[in-house]
Design goal:
With 300 residues, this protein is α/β, with parallel strands linked by helices. Helix content is 31%, strand content 20%. It has 9 helices and 16 strands. The strands form 4 sheets. The protein has an 8-stranded parallel sheet with strand order 3-16-15-10-9-8-7-4. Strand 7, helix 3 and strand 8 form a beta-alpha-beta unit. The model has no long low-confidence stretch (mean pLDDT 96).
């Protein structure tokens, strides 16, 4: 039974990886589960300098999910390179670094610094607010998506994954823009913009007013968008958005995802990723699937 999948020439032992921002850079979970079992670990967003993130409160539970407005708090590239990369290289799993920035130059700075590091792929978080364009996310304008993809590709030594925002009218327009810019892989979806109000305090539940909604509540939207993108571009897709179980993961694969990322589930069940790996294997046995790639996009 073959569970190996290929993303732009990088072979993963199975299609299951962590979703950026939900797994730190692996060390928090490494004490609890065997990171060697995962296809890849995707790190929290890394910027060229430390980011303090948004004011607190920054997280609120919602029906079927959670809202976060962390604001991509991270210690910056230097700490990441010294502390997190050496930790992850101990394991037999692929390392994917999520890169964030406020300007195109910020992204390029991190991408250049990572060029000689032992990491396998770069995931570019284009849901970051583009300060030069008045704060609109890079990923909400197809011209900006194509331009930043093209710039990052000029400097990247590793394959580039562009992470698409669902907060757009037509996700396929953004996917085609990333493809035109030279992206190697697409990952989707990032969080949906949401809001929660505390009726007893008559105040916003997170200080930022809005935040990113993740968890099972967004899964049907995510599956639909993965299906649309899989049928609009030729690039491999990493599907994510509310995956809690192996059944959820298989649904994304059938819709057209070559691999899947598990995010919010990690908070409520630290073993979710490994359980999903085992669950996919059990599904393949049950339905006599010899090669997981037979399932990719099998539902047309």
């Amino acid at each position: 039974m073959n569970t190996k999948v290929n993303l732009a020439g990088v072979e993963l032992k199975n299609p299951v990886m962590t979703a950026s921002g939900t797994f730190g850079s692996g060390a928090e979970y490494g004490e609890m589960l065997d990171l060697n079992r995962l296809g890849a670990v995707v790190t929290k967003g890394v910027a060229n300098i430390p980011w303090p993130g948004n004011p607190t409160p920054r997280i609120a539970e919602t029906y079927g999910g959670m809202i976060n407005a962390i604001g991509l708090q991270n210690p910056g590239y230097d700490v990441f390179a010294k502390r997190d990369i050496p930790y992850l290289t101990q394991f037999d799993t692929k390392i994917i670094v999520n890169v964030c920035g406020k300007t195109t130059e910020d992204y390029i700075d991190v991408v250049e610094k990572l060029s000689d590091q032992p990491v396998d792929m770069l995931e570019i978080n284009i849901s970051c607010p583009n300060v030069k364009e008045g704060g609109i996310a890079f990923g909400q304008d197809p011209k900006a998506v194509e331009a930043i993809t093209r710039e990052v590709k000029k400097y990247a030594k590793q394959p580039v994954i562009m992470k698409l925002s669902p907060n757009v009218t037509d996700i396929t327009v953004m996917a085609k823009a990333a493809e035109a810019g030279g992206a190697d892989v697409l990952s989707l979806i990032n969080t949906l913009t949401g809001m929660k109000i505390d009726i007893h305090k008559r105040a916003f539940a997170v200080a930022n007013k809005t935040g990113g909604l993740s968890g099972p509540a967004i899964k049907p939207v995510a599956v639909r968008m993965v299906y649309q993108v899989a049928n609009a571009v030729k690039l491999p897709i990493i599907g994510m958005g509310g995956i809690m179980t192996a059944d959820d993961a298989v649904e994304f694969i059938l819709a057209g995802a070559t691999a899947v990322s598990v995010g919010t589930a990690n908070f409520h069940n630290p073993y979710a990723t490994v359980e999903i790996v085992e669950g996919i294997e059990a599904y393949m046995k049950k339905y006599h699937v010899d090669d997981i790639n037979e399932l990719v996009g099998a539902v047309k």
